[in-house]
Amino acid sequence: MSTAERAETTVRASWMARVGAYVALTKPRVIELLLVTTVPAMMLAERGFPSPWLVLSTLAGGTMAAASANTLNCVVDADIDAKMRRTRRRPLVRAQVSVRNAFVFGLTLGVGSFAFLWATTNLLAAALAVATIVFYVVIYTLGLKRRTAQNIVWGGAAGCMPVVIGWAAVTGTVHWPALVMFGVIFFWTPPHFWSLALRFREDYAAAGVPMLPVVATPQQVSRQILIYTWVMVAWSLLLVPATSLVYGLAAVAGGGWFLIKAYRMHQAVRRGEPPHSMRLFHMSNTYLAALFFAIAVDAAIGLPTLV
């Protein structure tokens, strides 16, 4: 390989590493879960298949909004990310991207998401996307995360907004089924995240973040997880009047499965055994994806509603 070829290879590798660092700032795996809930919400709003262009536009704008919120979250949390094993390889901690550039990147994505959603869907969906970014960065990251053990309960509301944005993109309004789907994700978030936080309790303690597992005993945490799971399952049944037997069966079966797993973890903790909380964490992802898949199938089939 010639000197020129080696130089070109080095430049290409450096450019790809830089692009990869910016992508990592957006937390793609988190965005995936948000998008999984958006399309079913749009299908339920349409009671069928919305325009493919509308779906793609909403997903693109929603991705930009979520990427903006996640990037700005990385900027604010760079100091504590450096203290946690789970996050110490993030781009800002490793100085792969400057704080200034990350901040500008996050703001640009936020402005771009608003402009794109307004142009391709409607003003309500665009405004809800911006409100989500502000809530996640200002209310959760700056206001709640380092101050209260209830941080993820209220801060998790930002992760519920994609279903509302999707509904608004289709209808131009927000009706009660969108709020029920919002509530399902709202009550799902504490069991989901506290299961993860149980595993990384020492990380959050070292960073001074008062996640519930840091300030409460494992038994208290598992009890709270079980309580929120009961509420989540009960709340999920409120969507039955807007759906058919497909969703109803999925909500009952999936909710029962989640409850059994949460109860078993709580009983294990009470016996002094390891909670194996990551099992519940991974299962919670499967539950949410399956529940919203059932919503999509329900809307696609178009069976008469149960009520």
Give your account of this protein's structure.
The chain is flat and about 55 Å long. α3 (52-76) packs antiparallel against α5 (99-120), α5 runs antiparallel to α6 and α9 packs antiparallel against α14 (277-301). It has two domains: 17-174, UbiA prenyltransferase (Tetracycline Repressor, domain 2); 175-307, Four Helix Bundle (Hemerythrin (Met), subunit A) (Up-down Bundle). The chain is built from 14 helices and no strands. The chain has helices spanning 3-25, 28-46, 52-76, 78-81, 99-120, 123-144, 151-155, 161-171, 176-199, 201-207, 212-215, 218-236, 245-270, 277-301. The termini are far apart. With 307 residues, it is mainly alpha-helical. The protein is 77% helix and 0% strand.
Task: Describe the structure in brief.
This protein has 14 helices and no strands.
Sum up the structure in keywords.
77% helix; Tetracycline Repressor, domain 2; 307 residues; mainly alpha; Four Helix Bundle (Hemerythrin (Met), subunit A); flat
Secondary structure layout:
Blueprint lengths: L2 H23 L2 H19 L5 H25 L1 H4 L17 H22 L2 H22 L6 H5 L5 H11 L4 H24 L1 H7 L4 H4 L2 H19 L8 H26 L6 H25 L6
Order of helices and strands: HHHHHHHHHHHHHH
Share of residues in strands: under 5%
Give the number of DSSP strands.
Answer: 0
User: What is the number of independent domains?
Assistant: 2
List unreliable stretches of 5+ residues: 3-11
Basic shape: flat
Mean pLDDT, to the nearest integer, reads 91
